[in-house]
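ingest -> validate -> predict -> emit
validate: passed (alphabet ok, no gaps, 470 aa)
predict: started
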Amino acid sequence: MEYVADLHLHSKYSRAVSRDMVLPTMALWAKKKGINILSTGDFTHPLWFREIKDQLEEASEGLFKLKSAISNPPAGEAGQQSAISKDLLFLLSVEISSIYSQGGRGHRIHNLVFAPSFETAEKINKELVKRGSNLASDGRPIIGLSSIQLLELILSIDKNAILIPCHAWTPWFSLYGSSSGFDSIDEAFGGYAKYIYGVETGLSSDPYMNWQIPELEKRSILSFSDAHSPMKMGREATVFVRKDGISNSQFPISNDDKISYQDIISAIKKEESAKFKIGYTIEFYPEEGKYHYNGHRNCQVVQTPGETKEKGAICPVCHRPLTVGVMHRVEELAKGNDWFGNETIKSNANGVKWILDENGKHPPFVKLVQLIQIIAESLSSTVSSLKVINAYDELCLKFGSELTVLLKTPVDEIKKEAGEKIAEGIDKVRKGDIVILPGFDGQYGIVKIWDDKKVSEKQTNLVSQLGIDF
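emit:
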């Protein structure tokens, strides 16, 4: 049994998040996507905390499922109620924004917190309120505690809670951020660094980039979607598998295959006694992330790390410092390793390109484009068009889920169901035969499967022309 886990997303109570980010709708999309474990997100928000307590019940130790009244609503309610997965598990988590000064410098760090129970989550909430946090203002609360103080507080409440630095390379709000972060976990967390068992890659970096950092050698490299809408769930995910390699694929899941909160934490910690481990991760193309290259969005200036080294980090248009992107920042902290372009790649029988750690220290990963984007470009349409949505739903229904279509279904079977163009698009994505214009300074990169139109340097114009919905 593989457990595909997306443990970083947001509810409707976070800013700039879809109103559809509620548990029943998230469950509908989880089944389409092929996700087995979802984050609740935002457990510090009082209204959302009330909702998740009302709608969830414990399924296994520290993991929850929708109550039967929610997963089996009366006929006519919740639209596609029959498609809600009754096996979907939820884990309590929240992203917390710490804004503080340390060492004479301002820092803005976002950390992901996992809690093993409602009781622990409630205690965390109460302690944050005592320290002046306005939890009702946003699902992603802003606090004045440092990362050290936050981790100290969480561990004092429950030693089974865990903190993960999220989107670790984003310039403005992360552990390694070029504009507000630190150069190391030790610098950021001091004596509590030993309790940082992993980091989240974020959309603008992939595991291979993180493998270059010496202090991450023995830590887990995690990937989650940070989704603000149901469609974006699972665009990055971490897959947990049995450590002994034995899996019962029959339904219902056997007791040996059932996973608990502690199993997930033990896998992240890489404990010898762990029953599960991280089998692989599913990745966004990091070039598609908003901060991959250096640049200035307003000036439409974008540079590779090499170009910045040659030309300097000052914008030639406005003469202000460029926003230093993730690629450049990784090179700064990689201790001189000559790593770029040296990935070890292996393709499987379905033509899926996997990136492997030849040293065996980290699990493999695969880079994908969302199925609905592939269909939209294949049909020369947009992701919001009815024909694209119908084609997407039909493929997910026919083959079980989006991830099954992208990773496991033979191309010939896809061609019979969806036509030659969509099958070709999926095959090209599997092989990495695509064109990407990297993102920079808060602007998403552009992915094109067919290079039948010249990719403009003016990304915003291209987005408008193609009707791409990010």
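The chain has two domains: 3-287, 371-466.
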